């Protein structure tokens, strides 16, 4: 059927009954050949907001070096998350311009500078949540987003957070990173009209069940405008923030 | 000591200063003999801070009427929790002085007025948490505790709570009742030095898992001074509050 | 201390040593008196993107009628979710202009028309997910967002979804509603650069555990740019979408 | 009773009233003596489709060497799964013809070549799922099944999978290996009429709960024709595939 | 790019440099235009082994009647599962040839008789598992599969099962339906070389957790060749069995 | 009764037939007066069926040596469970007669030989369950129970178990040790009238969830006469078996 | 093979080389023909300690009447559990000698009186646990076991339990029935040397999770000699108790 | 608006229409400027009952040394929990007066002695619960609370606990620390009128699920007056106890 229709169109082109441009437009209206589809075939960087990001936890130093070399051949920007500091030296021998952000555990190399766009605030509850918060913040900055950091403003001392409300509201997207009971997302959600991306962390012990408590808290947030990503997924929060910011910042 | 007292009694019997029957009765008031133990045998009202409290959910109207009649014969104060309004009329026919607090679902009768002692604040997050909050508040009031109510101060609108901090700190014990994500307990715990009793409620849906989310939140509270009772257990919070207040208010 | 500082400033104003405008600026730099804070005191509609939304499940017809009457006195727009059709007639007797969207279960009344802004697509997997999808769609439309609906495009017949990629990419925010295994969120996340708000539904049986399976699927999405809200929380997805759209369509 | 009946038959044989062959047939119709039962007593290789497969995780190098030696004395084919590379050298000293497939972690020795039968496709979502996918693929190949590999076709880039539909449909059984959200099984199930064996993997973090998320996703698959095996159980998928293929490929 | 290539091909056709048939073949080698893809566009009955099956639980009598009427206009075979007996009469008024299998809760109508193919055995543990077992059996029979039923052979009386081993092995696929502890799947898996499809049921109480215990049992089966479907999903087992049988029985 | 005895003693004191000091001593031998109570005050070996058993997992070699020395001073029999082999040498330097059973991980020393009583069978499913099975078996033997071992009779090869039914029925108590899906307990429960003590083990992976699957299976056993102990708790099974055997074997 | 051996034996009998009795004995030593096996073929009452017990929850009055009539034709004793009182009247019309124990919900009929044997104590924590405790007690009494009841001795008032220790120790088996936190099993286990069968009940609310809390408590009991059955499974406890008592009381 | 009102007040002060003291009072009645709020700005030691307590688990020796040095510059009292012994030496080199309590794992330094107030009893079930019990006890003692220790009184030997009832009742707050089944909290709650703070520990194995069993037990306690803190959270129990004791002991 589809094949039949295809042949008919081609024969009309051959016979001169159909203009090439009109034929093109017809193909676009055929299922799977439309513009939305064309994107499927192009490279990931076109379809996604982020380049390929390598999740390095559980990979050996050698594996990471190899992956980075190969990816950097084909791309202008390569990013790795959950990278330990010892990996940095090894990769640098191969890619001298590689950069490493320690608390974030983010390793990246780039050939072209980022084009600035958008503004986000990353808020974290406790000092132990810092690596996840920084993973989000650094990934955003690599992509060109201006990041405001509001750290160590856990709800047990809520006045520290209240002092930062104005700062928070001046950004376009807010990322809240919290472990233990994760109540910070609800409180921030109640203080701002901005979209809030909540990242539960595995910080805590006992009945925190490795982040489950914070995850459930955030999903049940009584404040509106809160979306949740996976436990400890700082990069995932950045990816959602970039999706939001890219849509509106051109 | 105990041994000493035993010997004294026996010597009085030996000397004929004490009748065997009187000695028997004395032993009966000792039972399990030492002071720590004596309490075990006396009635519940002596050992516990609360009289027998009837959990009425799942009992028929007839069963509740019968239990109240029997208990009120033996006690000056009878309390029932989770009582539906239709039970009230039925019990009143038998016990005219019975009283019913509707949102709390608490039914009680008393012969002697409560002796006032202590002050507590009951804080609730949303209107749907009201029945549990009132169960706690009414149970406290029946026991003689002065109760301040700070309702509908969920963390999504935290300014409402902040306005009440002074009131909260003027009481001796704070009960926080919250469903959904239960973040209120942490926020209150961060605002007061008073002991906080947290009651998760089953209010919510989806990933609240009937109160599990609020329960975990409260157990993982990043604020100090928070103890947690069972889901929807307003009476349990009151019982702990009374235990605290009785210890120090004579 | 704070009080002391306050008095000092006031005395300087009284003495003419301090200009009123300078004093204002000083208050702004004091904690809690800044602009961000001022918002805390204003009404919900100023701080939030949505007006007060009444969650009607579990409330009686009488209760809902009363709440709607009271809220509509004070607000220009009142919205109720999870409303059964029988409630509609009862509320209409009091508020003739009340409107009801049946599959969505949304009841609302308004005095001023919505100001159009933004465009969202709501995608749902199966017909049983419709009520949740419609709750999201109708809430968006009430707020003034243009909504495209792409329904019944479950991953078991993925070609139906592929035909809609272009439509999806023309909106600014995408909401994906799916129960059972909830795989649709990942697939959509892989097909678009737009921010994706995933709503797991309780549709399913057995090991769907009332939406837990879909929830976990969405949280673990291998595609970037996906944020998750609570199970069956169509309104929550709309609230997050409005937060995103308001930020940029200001 | 049974004993009584037994004696009766034997006496009839003794008396010549019953032929030995007829008596045999009678025994076969007695419970437990039928052909189905006979199999119970024969060796595993007759009853099962697979030879004894040694699960090596948690065993020492010495233990594995010993087990392989003993089993290879009695069998023509010995297979071990979850074998680390260091074990290979140690076993090879004892069994020179031993073979090792590294990414799969499968160690095996055979005396007779496999008889080819059947065709399966093994599909995996991400590179981290490779060891499990290869465990399935290598186990199938050892048994004589022709295996097509379609790797790294996660649903976040669904066009890669769509390109392989024809290949998939040319095999007789499809194994889908996926961690994180495990959505691939549903998508493949919707693209093929072939039986799909889904293997959730423990790949992921946070709310993947070591494979639970993928497991639930696969059990709730909205696509028909999907059966699920245990988390990371590549061999189990191969065993089910062989059971299917053996039934029909003689 | 894709568009560019398209235009180039069309211009070559227009210019006569490219034959229509050669152009067709080129399109086929373009992604998404191959035969595998063509299937995506055809109707469900071509791609799936089963026709549309209506899950009737939770739908009103009126809704089911409407759905059956519409589907039966477009299809020769319509099937509904989880149908209560009262629905049967209502549908029969509209579709006189409708048939209903009571313990299975399966309602169906057909215009053309089923073409027989394949043989399956359905085994169930207890009488309470019967509805699920019958849902599987009846769905198979409607599709044309010959079904052997081995019911009430729970492992607590394993001799009953042992008597049926021969029968079981004469079929091509085995479905095992069991609730409570679900041990039957492992036992059957150990007795047969046939592929075993395990269906946990929600039969049980207490720590059966609505089928979770049986589900976990089956997933951890120590016997090889077992694939598991969702709790109570008799139809799902039939769908997988049909996928297997169709692949090999033409 | 108790009262009666009290009165008798008091009357004897009154009459001068009983010295006050002797009466005191009599009261002391009563404590909590009746015989059942007296046991409370005596040593553990009197009240319990087992001597103090040291759970050694997580303790250092030094700690275990110290504990064994102290306990062996006061007791004739000392037992430790979950003991690694390296501990054996260290303890033997202090207690030369110490004995160690390796697969069981049980370390013990005794001064008086066990008095034989009772007979138990320990059945295990797979070789990986051996340590737990042996912990149960060795603990029983140390106490004097005759133990029959029926190992490696998993339900995947049920004929091996069927061959042992007679042996099993000749003992007085049966312990079934199984991991993975734990189906063996149900099968054994269906084959014997003896009390069955089921021990789930943490053997397995993935959805065995460290023994949870086997635990649930055993709790939901469709066979009667099965009691369950904690996961991997071989000693606990032995303790229950000894409680049963002691009651009846005097 | 087996068949071959069978034939050989039969031929030897035919030839007179083998005595019928010797042949019988040989068959007994063949796998599956031994005495243990013979039992498999006999009726349930021979193999099990209990007759068929009908679990009536979820069955209609008509179904129960029919099942009781059929079973009572073939057996001398029929028992049903979880029977509502309305069923009693209906069954009595068919079986006049039927008896019903209300709090237990046990319905039974018998032709021959029970032969007394053994003694058990049933202990329950709260009044709400009574139905489960009575199910256990009545089932035991029907089988002929002498039952002591020690009810309402929850650990919150432990002195009530301490008074009953002597009574408890005079029985041979102890059943402990408790909901909420289920701590009673540990306390009883610490007070007696008798085997303790623990029955968690679903009594409680909130974090009792329908009996899960009590179940886990009992499985983790720090006291030895405790075996656990399923939640609310009073009959199961009785079945285990009877298995123990039968073994030793002939 | 708020700004406007602020300006108005200041202008009235400037104009002399408003007294400075009256203005101060007006500010106090403005939201957030009241006394309750002032506290928000003061240091943690004013608002909290405890100084900053450092959770040291997971921190390196270097990090802990640095944190202690910095905190001890600003505070008179610094406390660390979950500290390993090797950290002690390192910190002592910098802070010679540092003290370390080994079983508790608590490290602290102070310049001013604690002011004694209040009395608490810490009760623990088993020796393995000691570290958590000591964490609670030592933290209390550092704050100035008199601590009575009642250790190793698990419910399996309840007489040991009964002997200590008098001691327990002489304190003002009771902390109960128990792992495994955690039944001790209920038993203590039934023996005393004092407030009971229950600390579940992760001591146990198998179905203790790292403290979940004990946690659920304590939350479901049938005894009144029990509040629960997180698993292993000895410090949290101390914090709640101090909150209670501070409220009443000035």
Describe the protein's topology:
8 copies of one chain form a homooctamer.
Chain A: H1 2-14, H2 20-29, H3 35-41, H4 44-47, E1 53-55, H5 61-74, E2 77-81, H6 85-94, E3 99-101, E4 106-110, E5 119-124, H7 130-143, E6 146-150, H8 158-162, H9 165-169, E7 173-178, H10 184-191, E8 196-200, H11 212-219, E9 226-228, H12 234-248
Parallel strand pairs in A: 1-2, 5-6, 5-7, 7-8, 8-9
Antiparallel strand pairs in A: 2-4, 3-4
Spans of at least 5 consecutive residues with low confidence of chain A: 28-47
Instruction: State the name of the first-level CATH class of the largest domain in chain A.
Output: Alpha Beta
How helical, in percent, are the residues of chain A?
40-55%
Calculate the terminal CA-CA distance of chain A, rounded to whole Å. Answer: 41 Å
- Quaternary form: homooctamer
Share of β-strand residues of chain A: 15-25%
Overall strand count of chain A: 9
What is the molecular shape of chain A?
globular
Cα-atom Rg of chain A, whole angstroms? 23 Å
CATH architecture classification of the largest domain in chain A: 3-Layer(aba) Sandwich
Features:
homooctamer; 250 residues; alpha/beta; Ribosomal Protein S8, Chain: A, domain 1; Rossmann fold; four-stranded mixed sheet; 16% strand
């Amino acid at each position: 059927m589809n094949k039949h229709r295809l042949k008919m169109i081609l024969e009309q082109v051959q016979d001169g009954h159909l203009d090439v441009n009109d034929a093109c437009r017809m193909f676009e209206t055929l299922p799977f050949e439309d513009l939305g589809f064309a994107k499927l075939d192009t490279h990931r960087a076109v379809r996604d907001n982020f380049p390929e990001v390598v999740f390095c936890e559980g990979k050996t130093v050698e594996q990471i070096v190899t992956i980075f070399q190969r990816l950097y051949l084909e791309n202008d920007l390569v990013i790795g998350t959950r990278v330990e500091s010892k990996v940095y030296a090894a990769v640098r021998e191969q890619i001298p311009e590689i950069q490493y952000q320690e608390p974030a555990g983010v390793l990246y190399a780039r050939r072209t500078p980022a084009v600035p766009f958008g503004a986000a605030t990353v808020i974290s509850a406790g000092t132990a949540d810092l690596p996840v918060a920084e993973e989000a913040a650094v990934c955003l900055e690599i992509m060109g987003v201006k990041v405001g950091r509001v750290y160590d403003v856990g709800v047990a001392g809520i006045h520290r957070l209240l002092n930062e409300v104005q700062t928070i509201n001046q950004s376009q997207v807010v990322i809240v990173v919290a472990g233990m009971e994760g109540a910070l997302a609800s409180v921030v959600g109640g203080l701002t009209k901005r979209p809030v991306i909540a990242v539960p962390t595995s910080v805590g012990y006992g009945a925190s069940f490795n982040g489950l408590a914070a995850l459930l808290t955030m999903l049940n947030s009584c404040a509106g405008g809160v979306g949740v990503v996976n436990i400890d997924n700082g990069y995932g929060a950045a990816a959602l923030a970039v999706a939001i910011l890219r849509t509106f910042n051109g």
